[in-house]
Amino acid sequence: PPPLPPPSAMLTSRGPALCTALRRAVPGGLASFHSSARRCRAARVAVVLSGCGVYDGTEIHEASAVLVHLSRGGAEVHMYAPDVPQMHVIDHSKGQPAEAESRNVLVESARIARGKIASLAKLTTADHDAVIFPGGFGAAKNLSTFAVDGKDCKVNREVERVLKDFHKAGKPIGLCCISPVLAAKVLSGAEVTVGHEEEEGGKWPYAGTAGAIKELGAKHCVKEVTISFPAHVDTKNKVVTTPAFMCETALHHIFDGIGAMVKNVLKLTGK
Q1: Where are the beta strands (DSSP E) in 29-159?
Q2: Does residue 3 fall inside a structural domain?
Q3: What's the whole-model pTM score?
Q4: Which residues are catalytic?
Q5: Does residue 28 belong to any structural domain of this protein?
Q6: What range defines the domain where residue 154 resides?
Q7: Measured distance CA(152)–CA(69) in Å, rounded
Q8: Where is this gene product found (predicted)?
Q9: For residue 18, is it within any domain?
Q10: What digits encode the pLDDT tens for the residues 156-202?
Q11: What is the pLDDT of residue 9?
């Protein structure tokens, strides 16, 4: 058979015919075809980190799970962290404070973000369809003072602004592990879960957090960590929460539970 003409020649010779065919095939012509493509754009999701490492920052497995499920869901992701000093630095090999060290939350979070991260002060609702807060003690130490002050905690000013702005805009907020305390403190009457309300022989070692959430004026909903009992969805406030490492269980259960949270957040965006 004769060789095919180069692609440029094919486009040149067949361009008008292709355009005509598209106009006939797509109701409303090419303009509607392009507008339809715009309507199908990916959800833009902000992920807020609190450092790097479970005891003094973001729980790395949770952050990774959030990012994997957002990628699988086709989301466009941007990461942020407050540009503030950590409350303290924990030697993760010993589980004890490293007294001589000090670290910055934004700088440490950049490890997880592979350098692609911005100050939380730059996060706006106009540029995003949803926001997600992974857990880790950084949420209770760097994004708030919950680890020290419990129900009397204060929330970082930028974190509070972001939560209130997304809530006011009717855009979904996802939180996992200990981070639901942020919504409980800032969003009056929100419904959240951190899992169970009793330790149950050590399976739920942080069950006391549920009591603090109630004292903050939020409603606590008992939930499992696995995908069989997926994330709690507060449809009124568009807040989606899941227990994650609040439970002593297999990593794949935590991964799947976070996936349920992410899936519901993306669903609430309507994208």
Answers
A1: 44-48, 76-81, 90-91, 96-97, 117-119, 130-133
A2: no
A3: 0.85
A4: 177
A5: no
A6: 42-267
A7: 34
A8: Mitochondrion
A9: no
A10: 999 999 999 999 999 999 999 999 999 999 999 999 999 999 999 99
A11: 45
